[in-house]
Amino acid sequence: MAWRGQLSKNIKELRLLMCQSSPASSSARAFVEKNYKELKTLNPKLPILIRECSGVEPQLWARYDLGVEKGIKLEGMTEPQILKALEDLVKAGQSLKA
Amino acid sequence: MGLGLLASKAIRPTTRLINFQNPNNLFLRTIVSKPELRNPEPAAAQPEQPLVDLSPRTPVGGARVHFPNPDDAIEVFVDGFPVKIPKGFSVLQACEVAGVDIPRFCYHSRLSIAGNCRMCLVEVEKSPKPVASCAMPALPGMKIKTDTPVAKKAREGVMEFLLMNHPLDCPICDQGGECDLQDQSMAFGSDRGRFTEMKRSVVDKNLGPLVKTVMTRCIQCTRCVRFASEVAGVQDLGMLGRGSGEEIGTYVEKLMTSELSGNVIDICPVGALTSKPFAFKARNWELKNTETIDVTDAVGSNIRIDSRGPEVMRIVPRLNEDINEEWISDKTRFCYDGLKRQRLNDPMIRGPDGRFKPVNWREALSVVAEVAHQVKPEEIVGISGKLSDAESMIVLKDFLNRLGSNNVWGEGIGVNTNADLRSGYIMNTSIAGLEKADAFLLVGTQPRVEAAMVNARIRKTVTVNQAKVGYIGPATDFNYDNQHLGTGPQTLIDIAEGRHPFSKIISNAKHPVIIVGGGIFERKDQDAIFAAVETIAKQGNVVRSDWNGLNVLLLHAAQAAALDLGLVPQSENSLESAKFVYLMGADDTNLDKIPKDAFVVYQGHHGDKSVYRANVILPAAAFSEKEGIYENTEGCTQQTWPAVPTVGDSRDDWKIIRALSEVAEVRLPYDTIGGVRARLRTVAPNLVQIDEREPAALPSSLRPTFTQKMDPTPFGVAVENFYMTDAITRASKIMAQCSAMLLKK
Prior knowledge:
The structure holds two protein chains of two kinds. Helix content of chain A is about 40%, strand content about 20%. Chain A contains three helices and four strands, in the order αβαβββα. A four-stranded mixed β-sheet of chain A has the order 2-1-3-4, covered by helices on one side. In chain A, helix 2 (about 25-40) crosses helix 3 (about 80-95). Chain A starts with 6 loop residues before the first helix and ends with a helix. Chain B is α/β, with parallel strands linked by helices. Among the domains of chain B are: about 5-30, no CATH class; about 70-190, Ubiquitin-like (UB roll); about 210-340, no CATH class. In chain B, the strands form eight sheets. In chain B, strands 14-13-26-25-24-15-16 form a seven-stranded mixed β-sheet. The model of chain B is unreliable at about 1-30 (pLDDT under 50).
C-alpha cells in the first residue's frame, strides 16, 4: 500500500462527491469513514475535498498538473473497489508525468 | 381622506343647525361613513343557516400553522368559518389563519404585544364591547366577527383618533405609498374628519446618521421601542410623557447605537422613522425591485434592491425565516451608496510614470497574458476577495491550475486550513437551529460585529431559552448576558480538560452550541485549536445524531464557497516569492508581502486598497450588477440577481478570466454561465442547489489530529470596524459617517 503515501506526488487535489443519505453513496461514505484519516495523515498537504450534496451520485475526481482532471463514478462499487479506483487514479497520474 | 376633511370643514358651520332640525339628514350629520354604521347593533347570534362554503380559506400570506401539541388544538369561528388553531393563539392570529387580515398598527408578530393602537378591534359574540384582537387569547368555540357594523365603526373611530394628531403631510412624507396609516385610512377610515383644533407637534429626535425622525407623524404604536429593547437589545428608545404629551424618544439626547437600528424604519407603520440617506430621493412606486442577496457579511441576508435607472436607491430586507427573518443589519441596508463611488470603469495599465492609462480590453488582456507566460508556474499566485461569487472563484482556480500554479486561495483563509470536510467550516446547527440551543460557547468570535443577524438569533435564544453564553476572546460588546471566560486558547484547554466551571454548563446542556470564529483560519495553530474544540465537543456530547452544535461562523460572503471549492493556500510564503499576482477583488491582502518586482493584476469593482499596488486594472461588476452564487456561513447556497447595469466597460468576473484564458492560450472549456455552473457541479455540487442548505453529515472529528503546538497568543478581533469591512462599505459615505459617530472609541 505504498502508493497511499505517494498521493500528493502525483495528484494535486482529490475530490469525493457524494450524497449525505442515499444508499448509492453508502460505500463512498464508508470509504471516507475508514480511509480518510489514514490518507490525510500520510498526505497532510493534499486537499481531499469531500463534498456532500443531496441526490448526487458518488464520484471520485483527481486533479493532476496543469489542470488535467479525471473522474470515476463510484455508484455500485464496494469500499475496496473505491480504494482500487483511487489507486488507478494515482497510477494514471504517474503515467501523465512520465 | 384629505378631500373628505376639507369637505367636512366647509360644511361644518351649518351642520349643527341643520342637525338639530333634521336629525335624519344622513348626508350632513354623518359621523361614520355608511348609514348602516350609525347605530350598529351587535350582530345577533345568527340562527344556524346552511352556509354555502365552509372549506378552509387560504391563511393570510400563506401562513402555515404549527401545532406543537395536536391535542391542544381548539376550534374557533371567524365570520362563521371554523378554524383549528393551537391553544394560546390570539384572536388576531386565529383570524389570520382563517384568511382574514385584521388592520393593525402596534401588533407585530416578532415583537411583544402592546395592544395600544386599538386598530385591531373585532366583535366577539357575547362580549359587550369590541375586543382588541391582538391581545385577546382565542378561546374554544369563540365566535369572532370581523365584518360587522360594530367592528367597522370601531375601526373608523380609532382611525379618526389616530388622524387627529397626524399631520397629513403625505405629499412630503417619504413613507407615502407604503404607509400603513395611509393604506388603512383608505380601507377602513371615514371619508371625512371632524377635527378642527390645532394638531399637537413633537420635537424631532436625532437618532444618528441612519434614521430620520419626524416625530409629529408618530402614532405611539411603540413598535420601535419594543424592537430596540427586544430584538436589537439596546435600551435606547422609550416612551416619555402621558396622554397627549406622550412621545417616543431617548430621554437624554443620544444616538441609537445598534447595528440593527435601520429596521425601525421598516417596522414604523407611519413616516415617523424613515431612512435618512433615502430622504426625498425617490418615491417607492418609481423603483424597480430586485430580489437578491447581501454580500457584506457571511450571513447572506435576503434583500431587495430598489433601483431607479442605473442607480441603487435603497436596500430593504426580504423575509427568510431560516436566515435573517425580516431584519437586516445597518451595514447591509446602507452600504449601497458605496456602489456609486470609487468605481473602476475602464481597463487600465500603469505606465512607466506610475500613472494609470485607460486602454481597451484587448490590450489589457494581452499584456496580462504575456506576463503570465513569462513567469514560472509556481511564481503565479491568485487571491480571490471577500465579495467574489462562486463562479468567478472556480474560473480563477481553473485558469491558474491550467497555467500550472496551485497557489490560489480566498481571502481570510490562511495556510494549514483544512477544507476537506464541510462540517469543519460551516455552521452545522444552521442559523435557525440556534434557537433550540441552551448553552453557547463563543470561541474567538464577536458575533455582534461579525454577523449581526446571527447575533440577533443568539440574543433571541438567550432571551427565550435563558441560554448561557460563554465567550473566549478580547473584551467586546454583547447585547445579552454572557460570561467572559478568558482571552486566549489557554481557557479553551481549561474547558477541554474539565478544569473550568463552564465545561459543566456545556455537558449539562441539552442542546449545546460551540461557535468558532472565522478569524481562526488566519491562525497558524488552527489545527490545535480545532482539536481542543473537538475535545470539548466530545465531552459535552455536542455532536450527536440528532444535534450538531459544532459551528464555525465565517466572516465574508465568499468564504464558504471558497472553502467548498478548495481555494486554500498550499504552501507558506508563496506570496513572498510571487512574480505574478492576480488579485480578484482582494483588497485585504497584506500588500507588503508582495515582492517589489511582482506584476500585480487587480480585477475588481472598486478602487480600494489593492489598486495602489496594481500594474493592470480589470474592471468587474459588483454584486448588484451580476448573477452570482454565494454560499452563506450555514452552507445555504443563494444567488444574486442583477438590479442595475454594470458601470462603464466593466464585465462579470468570470467572463474576464474566461477571456483572459483564451488570450493566454489555455482556453477554459466553458463560455456560458450554465457551463460554469456545470463545472461547479463537478467540484462542489451543493453550490448549484440554489436556495438549498446542504448539511454536512460527515463529522469534522474524522480529521486526523496533528500534533501541533498551541500558540498562547489571545484571540484577535476579526472585524475592527463593523461599518467598513470590504471595498463597497469602505467606499460608502454613510458607512464612514456611521464609523465616525457610532463606534465606541
